[in-house]
Structure formats: C-alpha cells, structure tokens
C-alpha cells in the first residue's frame, strides 16, 4: 500500500504467503462436461505417448507433477502445487511449532552447518553454536546426504534422545552432544520491548501463523505492565500468512467496523470480517511500519488501520498482494494444490492486488535490487555484514536513491574507526542495462563499478574494462568483464575453510537458510560437447542471488585492490587514539567528580566532596 492520507492505493509489486483453509476438492460443472472430458482425453493421450514412446524410461510421478505445475502457472503467480514432502514444512510453519532438536541449518559442501540454534531450544541448552558442523547422528555419518534425509534424522518425538558428533572451527577433535528432542516453537512475534526512557512499545511480527494473535496479545500485556502507552507495530518483511490471523491482529486495534471482505467466483468464498468491541489495544496510539516486502495478511492489518484512520502507516509502497488462496488436499499421496479463489478488499473497498499481466516478469522478480555488504581483511578473509533487498522498478530513480543511501552507510570497526563502503560492483547483465549504465555514469571515481559477468574457463576474475555507451549520452562508461566461473570456484573453495584466517568467510547469525541455499545454488558439472570435455556452472536451485552478490563483492575487492597492511596500521593507530580519548574523558570526569561543591546544612555552608 502507498503511504498517503488519501483513500486511494497505488500498487507496484506483490508477493506473499497464501491463507490456508483445508477443504475437500471436487470438480464443479462450471464448464461443459464434454469439454472437460475432451481436455482430459488430450492429456491422457499425450501422457501415454510419453510413457510408451520416449527413448528413455520416464518417471511418471515427475511427469504428472510437472503437468500440474504447468497448468497452475497459467492461472496466476500464487496458485501452486505442494509436494507431500513440502507439505510437512508448510504445516509446521502454519502450526507454529515442530518436534526436533531446535536448530536452523544449511548444507554447505555436503556438510551440515548450523546457522543458529533456536533460542531456549534443546540444542542451545547443551551448547551447540552457530557455524558448528554436525558430521555424525547416532554414530552414523551424515556427510553427503540430502537435507530431507538429515531433517528426518534430527526430528522426532518429544522426549527422545539423539547423539551428535560436531566439528567446531578452531577445535581439533569432535565434540559430542546428547540432545533431547522437544517441541520447538516457531514464533511469529520476533521481538517486543519498551523503548528506553519512554512509554513507547515495539512489537515485530515476522509472519502470520496459527499462534500470531495469541503472541501479539501476550506481548502487548507484558508491555503494558512495563508502562507502554503507545505502540509501534513492525510489519516490515512480513510476507503474510493465515487470513484469520490477519483479521484477529487488526481486530485488536479496531472497533465494530468492517476490517476486510473477500469476493470470489463462487459464493462460498465470499466472507466479511467485522471488528469486535472490547479488545485489548483499541485505544492505544498506533504506528505501523511496512516496506516493500510487507504483503498479503500484513497488508490487511495495515490497510484496515489506514482505511479507518485508526493509526499512522509509515514506510514505502508495500507488495500489493490482494488474492486469497485455499489449500485443497490431494489424498492419494499427501500433496496439495493451493488455488486462488477470491480477491480481498480492505474496509474502504480497495483491492490492493498488483496487476500481473506479464506473469513471467513477475516470476523473474525483476522489480528489485539485491545487495550484500562484505568487509575484507588480510589474506582475503571476509566478514559478511548484511544482505539487503531494495524493492522497486530499477527504471525509477527512487530505487537508485535508496541504493545511494545504503552506500553512504558507515560501520564501526572494533578499533572504534568508522568504516565507509569503498567499492561497489553493479551488474549490468540483466533486463535493466540502460538504467544501470545511467546510474553509474558519473560514479567511477566514487568507487561504483559497472560490471558484466562472463562465463568461460581460464578467464580472470576481473578483465580489462571496455567502453559502453549510454543511450542519449556521448561519454561511454567503463564496463568491467567479470570471470564468474573462476570467482565461483574460489568462493566454493573458501566455504570449505574451517579455521579463521586467510580466505575464511564469516557470516552473521542472522542469516537464514534461504541465504545459504542461494549461496550454494549452483554446482560445477562436466559436459561433453562434440566429444570435448567442458566444465560449466549450472543452477540446482531456482534462486542464486546470494552467490552472484558474493561474486560481485569479490570483484569489487579485486578492482579496488586495497593495501591491507597500511589499513591495518591506520586501524591500530585509530584504536590507540580511541583508547587515549576514552582515558582522557575518564580523567576529566574524575576531576569533575572530585571538584568541591557547596551544600547548605543547618543554616551554615560546608564543603562536601562528591564521589
């Protein structure tokens, strides 16, 4: 939604998690039965041809699932097929809990790496830490097995034990842990607190699952006990969830008005949600924070508050997902189809769904910039600082202005020095080449380098820049060719380094599974072309943006080519100056404390030393 005082709504991009409603699936005679059977017969004929005549043996399950996915792709970006395996995770996310050892993990170079233990979970209680590598489960090696198999080994009934052998970077021998499985909550309220020295409360909702409303009420009650009289509700990055929970969250702040209603082709998909009186936070002053990743259920909450003038919405244009999905189970194998059945409308009658006439452009997610900030040290040891997405059309100036704001950020070094971003690589190989050229035309001396990835064995990571023209501009820009194959090989090799020092890659605990899946979304395969062997990087997962960003960060290092020895000396000098400054400040404070002051006592003046 667009942040404005008027009731109108401008929608730019959309995404979100669909609402869940389990019902039985039947085929209604909305079109002629003759036409339906004719189309089924066409599919059956092609399917039989493929199974009988194809020159290799066909996996009929994969063939069927591909046909289902292809059919749903023709409808809209949100209708989808969910496999039986994926349904386990979907149900856990919606339920808000699962039974297991309580870690978030990814698989890097065939080894399970702990991203972070879940707070107060069984793994954290026994001492498992982020970056630990679990190599054995109950005495059996798990190196090289898939994530689904690992998940089955680690999860299990509450109260059962599992033995883990863990390699921790910096230790020579394996560490042994026995973890008792427990029910692990998947909290939708990430954080809540009262801002220091104020009466302003803050609550962050990450998603909408079956426990969201209860968590919100519990957090609100605790904050009121701490003196909260105003509230900031943070829905930034909240991609949505269950429709009923969105209604219940909005209901906490509203009185007796329509919050949201749905309209579909079938009457049973029409619903109206009306606020109830007497909820816990109806009168508290309210600000809601949103961003371009706020979608679906979070837009229902924010949109109803905005429509009814109940609070202030602060942020940027949200995603704009105004479609309702219903989940239909396929009972033969436990899979499901999630199908769009209605549009939802906010209190004033707004449908915030973004148009998706070009579904392929929608799926390519072109309307955003993705970036990673990386710090580098001696021996090319690296520290990933943050990974960020700037949503919006790259043809619009506000997107690049947001990038400029990020590039002006500074980061505090342990010495006390403020470090600025010195070099930035921007890829021009996508569908917004001219926009990238336009952005970079006068920024070379500011450390902004326009690049284009080039595949091929033996190419240097950074090649000799050439000149590329900008439309309607006489002066060309420098375009750096980047040997992406060599850069990816270097990055994958460094992911295997386990000891701090040269080449080691540090990651913050805040990075989730999705990041590491993107970072390891490609593999090097050997192909044969006309009898000649050729190695090529291929995608094994749909999204590889984190890997691309790390390649570009490495290219920025190579182009900028800093002298780390001199930088280290400067940082040491800065650290010494910082310590001297603190010591000087402490001495001045001590002097101020020891300065005598006059205190009136019993009608006379006496000297009193304040310590």
List keywords for this structure.
611 residues; single chain; Pdz3 Domain; alpha+beta; 5-stranded antiparallel β-sheet; 6-stranded antiparallel β-sheet; 30% helix; 15 helices; disordered N terminus; disordered C terminus
Shape, principal axes of CA atoms: globular
Low-confidence stretches: 2-31, 594-611
Count of beta strands? 31
**Sheet of most strands:** 6 strands, antiparallel
State the end-to-end distance: 56 Å
Structural class: alpha+beta
What's the mean pLDDT score?
Answer: 81
Short structural description:
This protein is α+β, with helices and mostly antiparallel strands and 611 residues long. 30% of the residues lie in helices and 29% in strands.
């Amino acid at each position: 939604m667009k942040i404005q005082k008027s009731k109108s709504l401008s929608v730019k991009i959309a995404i979100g998690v669909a609402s869940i409603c389990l019902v039985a699936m039947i085929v209604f005679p909305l079109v002629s039965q003759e036409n339906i059977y004719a189309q089924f017969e066409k599919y059956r004929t092609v399917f039989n041809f493929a199974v009988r005549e194809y020159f290799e043996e066909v996996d009929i399950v994969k063939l069927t699932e591909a046909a289902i996915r292809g059919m749903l792709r023709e409808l809209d970006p949100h209708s989808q097929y969910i496999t039986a395996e994926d349904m386990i995770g979907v149900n856990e996310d919606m339920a808000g809990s699962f039974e297991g050892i309580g870690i978030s993990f990814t698989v890097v170079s065939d080894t399970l790496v702990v991203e972070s233990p879940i707070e107060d979970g069984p793994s954290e209680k026994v001492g498992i830490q982020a970056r630990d590598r679990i190599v054995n489960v109950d005495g059996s090696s798990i190196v090289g097995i898939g994530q689904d198999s690992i998940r089955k080994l680690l999860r299990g009934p509450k109260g059962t034990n599992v033995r883990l052998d863990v390699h921790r970077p910096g230790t020579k021998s394996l560490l042994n842990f026995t973890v008792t499985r427990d029910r692990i909550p998947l909290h939708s309220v990430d954080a809540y607190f009262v801002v220091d020295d104020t009466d302003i409360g803050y609550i962050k909702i990450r998603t909408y699952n079956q426990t969201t409303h209860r968590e919100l009420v519990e957090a609100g009650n605790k904050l009121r006990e701490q003196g909260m009289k105003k509230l900031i509700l943070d829905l930034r990055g909240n991609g949505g969830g269950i429709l009923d929970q969105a209604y219940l969250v909005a209901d906490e702040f509203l009185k007796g008005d329509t919050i949201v209603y749905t309209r579909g082709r079938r009457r049973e998909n029409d619903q109206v949600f009306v606020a109830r009186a007497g909820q816990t936070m109806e009168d508290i002053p309210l600000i809601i924070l949103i961003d371009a990743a706020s979608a679906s259920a979070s837009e229902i909450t924010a949109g109803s508050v905005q429509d009814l003038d109940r609070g202030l919405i602060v942020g940027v244009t949200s995603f704009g997902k105004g479609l309702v999905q219903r989940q239909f189970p396929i009972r033969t194998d436990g899979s499901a189809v999630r199908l769009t059945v209605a549009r939802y409308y906010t209190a004033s009658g707004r449908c915030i769904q973004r148009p998706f006439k070009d579904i392929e452009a929608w799926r390519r997610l072109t309307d955003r910039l993705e970036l990673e900030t990386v710090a580098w040290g001696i021996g090319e040891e690296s520290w990933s600082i943050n990974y960020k997405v700037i949503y919006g059309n790259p043809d619009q100036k506000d997107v690049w202005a947001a990038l400029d704001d990020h590039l002006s950020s500074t980061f505090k070094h342990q010495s006390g020095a403020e470090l600025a971003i010195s070099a930035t690589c921007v890829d021009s190989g996508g569908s917004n080449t001219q926009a990238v050229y336009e952005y970079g035309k006068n920024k070379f001396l500011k450390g902004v380098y326009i690049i284009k990835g080039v595949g091929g064995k033996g190419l240097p990571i950074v090649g000799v820049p050439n000149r590329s023209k900008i439309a309607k501009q006489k002066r060309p820009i420098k375009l750096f060719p980047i040997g992406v194959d060599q850069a990816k090989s270097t990055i994958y090799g460094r992911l295997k380094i386990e000891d701090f020092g040269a080449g080691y890659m540090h990651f913050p605990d805040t990075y989730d599974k999705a990041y590491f899946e993107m970072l390891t979304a490609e593999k090097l395969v050997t192909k044969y072309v006309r009898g000649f062997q050729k190695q090529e990087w291929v995608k094994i997962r749909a999204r590889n943006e984190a890997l691309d960003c790390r390649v570009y960060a490495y290219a920025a290092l190579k182009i900028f080519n800093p002298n780390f020895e001199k930088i280290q000396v400067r940082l040491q000098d800065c650290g010494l100056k910082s310590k001297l400054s603190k010591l000087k400040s402490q001495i001045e404070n001590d002097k101020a404390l020891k300065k005598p002051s006059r205190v009136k006592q019993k009608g006379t003046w006496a000297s009193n030393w304040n310590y």
